[in-house]
Amino acid sequence: MDAQTAVLDIRDLRTEFVTEEGVVHAVNGISYRLHQGQTIGVVGESGSGKSVSVLSVLRLLPSPPARIVGGEVWFKGQDLLKLPEKEMRRIRGKEIAMIFQDPMTSLNPVLTIGFQIMEPLMLHLHMGKKEARERAIELLHMVGIPEPQKRVDDYPHQFSGGMRQRAMIAMALACQPTVLIADEPTTALDVTIQAQIVDLVKRLRDELGMALIWITHDLGVVAGLADRVIVMYAGLIMEDAPVDELYEHPQHPYTRALLRSLPRMDEEAGRPLETIEGLPPDLLQMPQGCPFAPRCTYVRPECRTQRPPLVEIQPGHRVACWVDLETGALRS
User: Which CA distances in Å does 248 have to 243, 275, 309?
Assistant: First the structure.
């Protein structure tokens, strides 16, 4: 797919946080494209820059301490990082919507669920109250809330965790956005509810033809959901590949280590789970070389002194590693 078909084109995005201890380098030059109807899974440990990168795209980070220091985010012929705030407010919620990690802190506790779904409809689509309320009931029904005509007047505390997350999805889908960003939307839910939410988002994505960015630290979730997977570490992209290719032929030591730490149900089910020793780097002072080098079993002297570029090793498969894991040789 070429650049013309990308609905979201992120180029060399860099975000920092100014703190009393110094400058935290949270996102360090990431680039990828999202196409119409495509689902990208963004995975990595806590602190790898997954959430900060998408909050930067929507310009939702508090400034100060956050500041976007470089890059471009192209959406429908406009660089979102250069738009006036008034224009960004028109895009947020209408064109690009987001489901946040914790619905209890994202929903307003003193407003009804119905009003919170109606608000974007009245703001962006200029619906009247009656029409917006009817649409809110339809949306609650669409996301599987029983008796939506009664529950529309409930407050967030009257909903269970899974129902609150469904209400958040209804709110995000209210204006039928082009791009939906889901930031670890199943983290606070039990496993059965997680599966229901994933299935719901998949069904609605297919029905509405949205492009989807799904952020998670759970590689198991993205296996059946994503078309492509981006693996992040220390604010950088370590690997970017089609989902099947990534799971069958991981080409970065970090991706391989993440996959080996997952329980298996296949012929490898009996092997012990592996751990990744050590800790991610301190982002106050980014290492000169590869940030994963201190924890890597394939490390070479070059890895400690030079940061590997993200290069395409075969069509659609990008890796930032000096070592070819298949041969053990350095990449030329």
Answer: 9, 20, 23
